[in-house]
Automatic annotation (TrEMBL), chains A, B:
Keywords: DNA-binding, Transcription, Transcription regulation. Gene3D superfamilies: Chorismate lyase-like, Winged helix-like DNA-binding domain superfamily/Winged helix DNA-binding domain. The lineage of its organism: Bacteria, Bacillati, Actinomycetota, Actinomycetes, Kitasatosporales. It comes from Kitasatospora paracochleata. It comes from the Bacteria. This is GntR family transcriptional regulator.
Length: 265, 265
DNA sequence: AAGTGGTCTAGACCACGGG
DNA sequence: CCGTGGTCTAGACCACTTC
C-alpha cells in the first residue's frame, strides 16, 4: 500500500504532513479552527519554514486545509448541497424530466433553505471538438451557447452551458441573450423538438485558472462535470455541460421508488 | 475573472506557470513529450530553481504535467474509459438493472478492447456514520463490506465496496470471503431481497494518501465517487460506494432512448 | 505596529533512471 | 557515471489582516 523506497525514511515534509493529518483526524482541531502558525510548527518540529510549507501544501492539495494570507491556516469545512440531476426515469411522459427551467433549481434550493441566483449570457462560438461530435457537426462549426452562472448564497456554485447547433437556434428565441421564460425546454417544445432521452457523462478534473478564479476555489478542490446530450426522435438536440465546485455539491440520480434516508452529515 | 491584487504584478512563479500553460495549449509540446528540464527553465526565465518548481507545481496540481524523478517532466495524456452506470431505467423489470456481477464489467471492458481484472476481499467493520445513516443503523454498528479492487490493463481503476447490515449478511454466502457466483444480486434474490430501486450520489474529491498510493495517482487527479443506496420493498439493502481515478474513466447514465454518438476524443 | 502567510533567492545534498 | 527531479536549509522581503 506504500510506495516502495529503498530503505530510506520518508522525507521530513511528508512525515510532518502525515503527523498533521493524524492530529486532524484525531480531532485535535474542530470545525474551522486555526492551526498553529507556521513559525510554531517550525519550532515544534525543528525544521525550516520551507519544510513546514511543503507539508501544509500536501494537506491543502488534499482539500483538508485552507490558507488565508495574513490570518492563518484553517481546517476546511464545507456544507454540501445535494443537487438533483433531472433524469427522473419514473416520469417518462413528463417534459421536464430531462432538463428544467432555472425556476426548478431555485425552488429546490429554497426548499433546502438556500438562496440560488442566476446570471445569464449567450454567445456564439466554434464548437469544441467533443461538442461538435456529440451534435453530429463538422469540427469548428458554429454553436450557440446559452450559459447560466449560478450562485448559491452568493457563493459561486455551477456553470451550465447549453450548446445548440447554429442552424437549430437561428431565428428562434434561443438567440435571445436572456433566459427564455419557462426555460429553453418551452422553446424547444414550440419548435417541435421536445427532448425525450438523454445520456449523461460524469467526470471530475481540476479547474483551470479561470475556473478556479470564477468559482473562488483554491487548490485541492476538483470540479464535477456533467455532460448531458439530449435527443428527440430526429437526433441530438443539445449538449448541456454543467460544472460544479465539488466541495459545494453532489449530484443525485434516482431510479425506481428510490427513497433517500437523509443528507450525509 | 481575476483575483484582485493591489496594483502589484502577479508573482513570478504564477507568471511562469501561465507562460508554460500558454505554451502547452499552443501545442509546443505534443503527446507525452518531455518539457525542458528545470535547469533550462531556470536559465531561460532567469529565476531561482525553487521558483521554477513552484510554477511546475501549479501545473502538476492542475493535472497537466507529471514529474518523474530521474527522468524529467512530461505532458500528461491519459485515455479515458467510459463506464456505464447500471441504472438502465428502460429495463424496469430486469434484476441486474441496479447492480451487476463483475462479469458484466469484465465483458464491458473487453468490448472496449481492455482487460479488467478483479481482486476481492471481505471485512467486517464498524459502519461509517454516513453508511450507518443510509442503512438505518445505529452509529458504529457492524457492517459487512464486500470489496472489489479492479484493475484495467493492470492499472488500478476502481474500488467498489458493498456495505451490508451485519444481521442481513449473517449466515448467508455474503459472509464468504470470495465473490458470489453470479454476483451478490443472485444471493440477495435467493434471500427474497431483490433490489428494486436505487439512489446515487456523485461526488468528487482529492484522494487521501492511501488512495493515492493504491491508485498510483499523483497530485492533480481527483477521485470520482459514486455512492449508491439500493432498496427493496422492505427498506435499504446495501450501500455501494465506488471510487474511480478520474483520469481513467467517466461514468455514463442513460435514460429513455438515449443514443451516444461516440466517445469523447 | 505586529503577526500572519506569500514569494524568492542561493546553495547544498540526496535518490532515481539510464547510458 | 551523469543528468534528472526531490528534499532541505537559512535568510530576506513583501502583502494582507488585525489591532
Amino acid at each position: 500500500m506504500t510506495i516502495p523506497r529503498g530503505g530510506a525514511p520518508a522525507p521530513k515534509y511528508q512525515r510532518l504532513a502525515a503527523d498533521l493529518r493524524r492530529r486532524i483526524e484525531a480531532g485535535e482541531w474542530q470545525g474551522g479552527a486555526q492551526l498553529p502558525v507556521e513559525g510554531d510548527l517550525e519550532q515544534h518540529y525543528g525544521v525550516a519554514r520551507n519544510t513546514v510549507r511543503l507539508a501544509v501544501d500536501v494537506l491543502v492539495n488534499e482539500g483538508r486545509l485552507v490558507r488565508m494570507q495574513g490570518k492563518g491556516t484553517y481546517l476546511k469545512q464545507q456544507p454540501v448541497f445535494d443537487h438533483r440531476a433531472y433524469l427522473a426515469a419514473r416520469l417518462p411522459g413528463q417534459r421536464d424530466a430531462l432538463a428544467a427551467p432555472s425556476e426548478v433549481y431555485t425552488r429546490e434550493a429554497r426548499t433546502a433553505g438556500r438562496r440560488l441566483t442566476v446570471d445569464f449570457d449567450m454567445l456564439v462560438v466554434r464548437a469544441r471538438p467533443d461538442v461538435a461530435q456529440r451534435l453530429g457537426l463538422p469540427p469548428d462549426d458554429a454553436v450557440v451557447v446559452r450559459r447560466q452562472l449560478r450562485l448559491l448564497d452568493r457563493e459561486p456554485y455551477s456553470i451550465e452551458e447549453s450548446h445548440y447547433r447554429a442552424g437549430l437556434a437561428a431565428g428562434t428565441p434561443l438567440m435571445d441573450p436572456e433566459p427564455a421564460p419557462g426555460g429553453d425546454e418551452q422553446v424547444l417544445a414550440a419548435m417541435g423538438r421536445s427532448e425525450t432521452s438523454a445520456v449523461d457523462h460524469l467526470a471530475a478534473r481540476m479547474p483551470g485558472p479561470e475556473e478556479a478564479a470564477w468559482f473562488e476555489i483554491g487548490p485541492g478542490v476538483p470540479l464535477l462535470v456533467q455532460t448531458r446530450v439530449t435527443h428527440d426522435r430526429r437526433g441530438p438536440v443539445r449538449v448541456i455541460e454543467t460544472r460544479y465546485a465539488a466541495d459545494r455539491c453532489r449530484l443525485v440520480y434516482e431510479v425506481g421508488e428510490g427513497r433517500e434516508p437523509g443528507p450525509r452529515p
